[in-house]
Design a protein that fits this description.
- The chain is mainly β and 619 residues long.
- The chain contains 5 helices and 35 strands.
- It has a 22-stranded antiparallel β-barrel. Strands 3-8-9-6-7 form a 5-stranded mixed sheet.
- A hairpin with a 3-residue loop joins strand 18 and strand 19.
- The longest helix is centred in the first third of the chain and has 14 residues.
- The chain is globular, with a radius of gyration of 24 Å.
Amino acid sequence: MNKQFLSLCAIALAYTSVAAQDEPNESMKLQKLDEVVISDSRFELKRENSGKTVIKITAEELLQNQGKTVAEIINTKSGIEINGSRGRDGAVLGVSARGGRGKQVLIVIDGVRVSNPSSPSSEYDLRLLATANIESIEIIKGAASTLYGTNAATAVINITTKKASNEAISGNFQTSLGTQQTKDNQNYNLSRFSNSAQVSGTLNKFDYSVGFLNRYSDGLSAFVSSADEKDFYSEYSTDVKIGYKFSESFKVQVYGNQTKIKTAYDESFGTVANPLYESKQERVGLASVFSYNESGSINMNAAYSNYDAEDMGSYPGAFKGDNYTVDVYNKYNFNDKFYTILGVNYIQDESEFSELKKITITDPYANIVYVSPFGLNVNAGARFNNNSEYGSHVVYNINPSYSYKLDNGYVKVLSSYATSYITPSLSQLFGFFGANPELNPEENSTIEGGLEYANDKLRLSALYFNRDENETIVYGSEGYENIDGFIKAQGVEVELDWSLCENLTWNANYTFTERKGDNAIRIPKHKVNTSFNYQLSDATFASVSYAYTGDRLDTDFSTFSDVSLDSFSLVNLYVSHQLINNKLRVFVNAQNLLNEEFVETVGYTTLGRNFSLGLNLNL
């Protein structure tokens, strides 16, 4: 067997054989009955009072997935498929939720919508997100435009970044190294490196946080080819946060981020020897909260983002865009029964074509949540969308649920009907290819219903959804146009979280998705994710996971025909150990442990068996 492989195994065994310490950082407790969710209402409500099956990725779960990207972690959740997340670093990511496309998934970071106005569908590039800087993630699926506006049609991925430490100064440092190899080229050369550092603290009324991350990988070709060319990927990210607490009722925070990625890639045209892609994101923002009467608060989130990308391939191009967002809303809680939000959201997107083009969106919105003393809960609201190009549009939601309390837990029946909208992108309205300034917004309507049961050890939920897409924007014979009644999607999502015993938990989900109206490219009909998580000792944690991705279609661009891709299964292993209690942790991550061969996108490479080793230091 390869000597480098034996060396990696020896290091892994050494990591896990050190004597146990006193207390773990990784909690095995699920806290199902007391779990609080926020994204579906913007209020902290117990899960039993929420009319949605909100997916919550906690800080503990992120800790148990060190060494993985944001896309890899999210891809294990029900209803989500991220094409490219199983490929080489730097692969283009295609996000799908409930049979939709990337433009129907909204990314929110610290309360602010993020999207790239220079991209054809205004999608946000998940490669620009660093896992090490994230505190938690909540995912709500279904139409959510009432609270979140445009693009919130199939899911909202709500990301909260890490907060400043309560100490005067503290630091967190992470590093990992690993392999990046295909099934047939198991050389075990170290070719993936990641480092991050965050220093933060609180001094009286002032708090601060500074973070830095870099990733680099080299060793895998983007295309499946005999040349075995190495296509590198690099990423640099810097985050700065400064907050000031003027009083117990008034807080302000300013922040900034710069992320740069650069990657080599392959192309079938072959006219450029070494094509490259570069992208830079710069964001600055302000968040403030003014609390009053102990039950109300006025909140403001404002941000400016700049995106600058260049494609240096056979068809070179520069893509530049700016985005301004302001969201101001009043929250008020009436006796823990009525939770109300009244707000206005302003967005301005700009991008350069033959000349600078922009659109503005001004949306007043209102939402109310009623939590009755007898189990009935209602979440309802509406948004009046005003767009500088197509005029006005109304979306709304009604989300009743009923929770029946048991001696140790509850049973919840939930249902929802909601509409959403997707604003035409600047490229579709004013771009160089097939632009149509007369486009209307895409419309989605989603109906769903389900059951959830939970006690202090188990949470089980099952949900059915049915979604209609209308006024879908497609590229026709004369350019972009709206087509009515084009796409329909339906499916079932089942989720399980079970504490089998004190130190062992089982998480599983199953998704069935059926999309009609087109060829449903890269959307599997069946998908399963499951993991067993075991606290071996106070200091040692282990997790083994299994992921099944069913048959699906893809387009072979060498023949411009659709081909069927076989299903595949992946087994992953993660082990971590505390060398110094609450200070130093080491981990081993093994992906595709059985070295299965599979195709994710026709013609592109996927990862075989790979290992990564790392450490996490708190000071």
